[in-house]
Design goal:
The chain has 5 helices and no strands. By secondary structure, it is an all-alpha fold. The protein has one domain. The termini are far apart.
């Protein structure tokens, strides 16, 4: 699956991984799965893919530190929130945005 459907799968699973990290219940399988989905469905350089990669890297080094995993979960949840935010339809209008 690719396109918008793939994006939604990654966004949903990334948000679930963020919540699990914040609760201290995330596993290596969860991290591997969300990283593999991001690599399969999102283009290189996509902000959500970069956030998932950053989260997975932090998990590898900080998984035994609950405070750090809460922060990593917060960052990933924020990245998902930003990725799901729609772009304003009049973003290019200079009479409104200068």
């Amino acid at each position: 699956m690719s396109g918008r459907g793939g994006f939604r799968i990654v966004a949903g699973n990334a948000f679930a991984a963020a919540l699990k990290a914040k609760c201290g219940t995330i596993s290596a399988l969860d991290v591997d799965q969300v990283r593999a989905e991001a690599e399969a469905h999102l283009p290189e350089g996509d902000p959500l893919r970069l956030a998932v990669t950053r989260f997975a890297t932090r998990w590898e080094s900080d998984r035994f530190f609950p405070v750090e995993m809460i922060a990593a979960g917060d960052e990933l949840a924020r990245a998902v929130e930003l990725a799901l935010r729609p772009e304003p339809p009049d973003l290019g209008r200079t009479d409104i945005h200068g």
